[in-house]
What does this fold into?
Amino acid sequence: MHCIKKITDDLIWVGANDRRLAMFEGVYSVPGGVSYNSYLLNDATTVLFDTVDKAVQHRFLENVAEALGGKKLDYLIIQHMEPDHSTAIREIVTLYPDVKIVCNAKTLEMIKHFYDFDVEPYAYIVKENDILNTGAHQLRFIMAPMVHWPEVMVTYDSAAKILFSADAFGCFGALNGAIFADEVDFEKDYMDEARRYYSNIVGKYGNQVAAMLEKLHAPIEMICPLHGFVWRRNTDDFMSKYMLWSRYAPEEQGVMIAYASVYGNTENAAEILSSRLRDKGVKTQMFDVSVTPASEILSAAFRWSHLVFASTTYNAGIFISMEALINDLTAHNIQNRTVAIIENGSWAATSGGLIREQLEKCKGIDILEGTVSIRSGFRVAGLAEIESMADAIVGTFPDLAGKKQGGQVELEVSKIVDERTMFKLSYGLFVLTAKDGGKDNGCIVNTVTQITQNPLRISVAVNKANYTHDMIRKTGEFNVSILSESAQFKMFQQFGFQSGKDTDKFAGCGYDSRAENGIRYIPDQTNGMISGKVAESFDYGTHTLFIADVTQAFIISGEPSVTYQYYFDHIKPKPQPPKKDKKGFVCKICGYVYEGETLPDDYICPLCKHGAADFEPI
Ligand code: FEO
It folds into this structure.
């Protein structure tokens, strides 16, 4: 019996699930099963997007027939020729002999190699940016070689703004009735499987994934992948993950510790290291490589910023399961990580050097000096080495390293744009800094918003009365330091209650942290920094709205961003009841009190920058 799901008024999911498959592609365990997605577009002409694996072909064919409702099938688009999406081609052409198989030239060749029937009469060859008009929809084909095979293409429906993304944006796990990612708790229940899917299936081809994302300069309201959920909400969130993964940028600051231990001594050292790191405030995740499948450890390596490998020596080499893991990581092009190594060997420890040799071939791998070398059992003498390894690792964490230096916060920060910094933006409070010649200045603002993802742009509205406004207007550059909940009221006094025209707001701050643009930022009581280069500006009377390209962005800490509400509830001192006879005006917006008999007409609240109209007499 058919089991189909409506995606939109004229798009139907006709795929099927397999919960009996033990190993996807013969390699990856899929305890939650796997879905093979196919979609039928019921336009003036009918279009089927890909087919399914032979294991679920019967259900799929029932679904297609039901979705067609007696119509003929006009087009079968083959975006990806791998057999888990193409084994039903032959049955489709048998059941729907008028169908045209829409594919590129490479796909056509592959169909001939895989399947023994004459495909030529059905072939409808397309190339980059060709458009198939199906009636109300126009389908544009975008080549995406090596995402995951060389023939892959994706399809963009410009009318419905739907991306049919082939293997990209897929996920392990059968669909259990829900078809949309927003129908489940994706972050909690599926993100690990999405990362495992990405890292293992297309992780090796980050550049190609990035190239595909780059080519997709079009609004996307829905993503329909070949495995896993359809995305109709928060597509940008999942896109952001792909941006990170495709650049081999870690998702989180923390240490993955993978160990191979025959008699528990190497494991002992790894556990002590993990414990010391936790004491120092570093997140860790541990794996016994002989127990946990490599696909899960590879996935974790894509998540964390730091990797520790601890391995015993075996047959004068790396222990078997660790060697397999290292091979897997290098085969998947792991990059941009900080690595530390622990080795063990009863008479000739070699595993550490061999692991180092392998990982040095990867790009952007920074291997810390000081491999800890254990001779059989782990002894007290080894504790100091583990302690120094923990310190060396901590020394590479920007926020922790900064805090170690007694308030002299000097961060080692990413020179690139870490898009995760955008997640720190809220209706919060920010220190906006700028520089004009030798003069630095900053002010408090509450309006910083991400506008677009591609190109990555933010907006900030700045009161014209602020000196910082004039600097940005003149130089076209600024930094935004995102204040965290640890921000003290003094910070607001320093940057909000005085004018930079007659004060050095940075005097006595104890740091001189500058972003790549040379402008200062605030490394303390903040959780992220974004540099902007003004692309456009708009005059809104009292304020200028600057639209800026993000040129640098990085996370400073994991503390929550301060919100406007949090500021009033926890940071701003509660107003004292006015003394009898005291005359003044209170700002209705932020509660600031102006003392005096009369309020000047052009008065501007030093805190929230609202004008005299927003004040009322005490
Ligand atoms: Fe789901 Fe690359 O096939």
About this structure: Residues 80, 82, 84-85, 148, 167, 226-227 surround MU-OXO-diiron (CB under 6 Å). The two ends are 74 Å apart (CA to CA).
